[in-house]
Design a protein that fits this description.
The chain is mainly beta and about 425 residues long. The strands form five sheets. Strands 10, 11, 12, 13, 14, 15, 16, 17, 18 and 19 form a ten-stranded mixed β-sheet that branches. A hairpin with a 2-residue loop joins strand 11 and strand 12.
Length: about 425
């Protein structure tokens, strides 16, 4: 039935009791041991030496000697070894950056740094007077910068002669990254680049073009916003009539203005407001005004600046050019623009034939566009010196002649009745 009905212990014996030790092994009293070799136990190798090992067929180290590290090959070829040579234990890199046969190159997949492991401040380049110093970086990516020079402290780039920053790409631009607005500034004044001549005399900035024919196609300075849309420039300008070249400033502004102080700093004024000038101070109250003018919207040039601390007490007043003016009522191009008479900063349009003598002394300018809208609006107005209308002068001269003729006839009647 598969039941255990009896149990006895039997001793396990090894019928083959003969063992032999192979090469490098010892056998005594049934125990194996590893035979000693001629190598003395210890640590081999150092900062200046490497161990030379002898290994037998069983993989045992049977001999060790320390070998001093030496540079047995002291001859290097710039053409085959990339410009590396050694003299008295010092390495020298040489090559021609413009010669593909003997270039001086560093090839690395990680940042290339020189100096100690903390500051990396040990790179120095000394260039013989007979040669030009050049650092060239190749990149297969146009969007990722491959060459950067940076410093947490002051950095100086100096030369006995000219310093050039050049790109072989005609469409390349030099960009100042976000967060580095004061990269070249001498103080924290908000300017991205500050150029300073440390001399007490002399000039600061010169822009030149290697051409004898400077004209409107030559832009010396361009002003652009974030979207790269140009909103102004300083260009060359030539005059065929005078056979001369010069420069001109172009922008959307269309008038020359000056800062004039308010008579009352609490009075609010807006671009396009009609104001009166009395003793050099401005107000929308025209009583006693010696001249009627308008607040500029976007002047091309502004003069009489008194500093940032006084800007709130001044307004830019148009002196000459084209400016938008607040006008109520319909207007036709060619109408004269005069105050509404309500001291509210608003103007009205008057045709030349309806202009009165009183209004002629308050002319702001002449409308250069028409509008049939009767409500408040902005109209482009030309402000020119000596804008006294000739039509009213012609009318006064005609009326004067008519009066003289009537007086003459009265004298003739009087004399005839004597």
């Amino acid at each position: 039935q598969g039941r255990v009905t009896g149990v006895t212990n039997t001793t396990i014996t090894d019928e083959n009791t003969e063992y032999t030790a192979g090469t490098g092994l010892g056998l005594a009293s049934g125990a194996f041991s590893l035979a000693n070799t001629a190598v003395t136990a210890g640590t081999y190798g150092s900062a200046t030496q490497v161990p030379a090992l002898t290994v037998d067929a069983q993989g045992r180290v049977t001999g060790v000697t320390n070998t001093t590290i030496t540079d047995s090959d002291t001859t290097y070829s710039a053409a085959t070894d990339g410009g590396l040579s050694e003299t008295s234990g010092a390495f020298k890199l040489s090559g021609d950056v413009d010669n593909t046969a003997t270039p001086l190159r560093f090839v690395t997949d990680s940042p290339l740094k020189f100096g100690d492991t903390t500051t990396y401040s040990g790179l120095g380049l000394t260039i013989p007077d007979a040669f030009d110093a050049q650092i060239k970086m190749d990149s297969n990516s146009g969007s990722v910068p491959r060459f950067a020079i940076s410093s947490e402290y002051n950095m100086r780039i100096s030369a006995k002669n000219d310093i050039f920053i050049v790109s072989d790409n005609d469409s390349a631009t030099y960009t100042m990254s976000d967060g580095q607005i004061n990269l070249f500034a001498s103080k924290d004044d908000g300017y991205g680049i500050t150029m300073k001549n440390n001399s007490t005399e002399g000039n600061v900035l010169s822009l030149s073009l290697d051409s004898d024919n400077i004209d409107d196609s030559n832009e010396f300075i361009g002003f652009k916003g974030k979207g790269e849309e140009s909103f102004g420039s300083i260009k060359g300008h030539d005059s065929q009539l005078l056979s001369q070249s010069g420069v001109k400033f172009e922008s959307y502004g269309a008038d020359y203005a000056e800062y004039l102080p308010k008579a009352d700093n609490r009075e609010e004024m807006e671009p396009g407001d009609i104001i009166g000038v009395k003793d050099g101070h401005i107000s929308k109250d025209l009583v006693g005004a010696q001249k009627v003018m308008v607040i500029s919207s976007m002047p091309l040039v502004v003069g009489n600046w008194k500093g940032k601390d006084t800007e709130l007490t001044y307004e830019t007043v148009a002196f000459v050019g084209q400016v938008p003016v607040k006008i109520k009522g319909s207007v036709k191009s060619g109408d004269y623009i005069v105050p509404s008479g309500s001291n509210d900063g608003i103007a009205i349009a008057v045709s030349p034939s309806n202009l009165t003598v009183e209004q002629s002394s308050q002319i702001v300018g002449q409308a250069w566009e028409s509008s049939s809208k009767t409500g408040l609006k902005y109209v482009n107005v030309a402000i020119t010196p000596h804008s006294q209308p000739t039509s009213i002068l012609d009318r006064l001269e005609k009326e004067n002649k008519e009066l003289k003729e009537e007086i003459r006839k009265i004298y003739e009647l009087i004399n005839a009745n004597k």
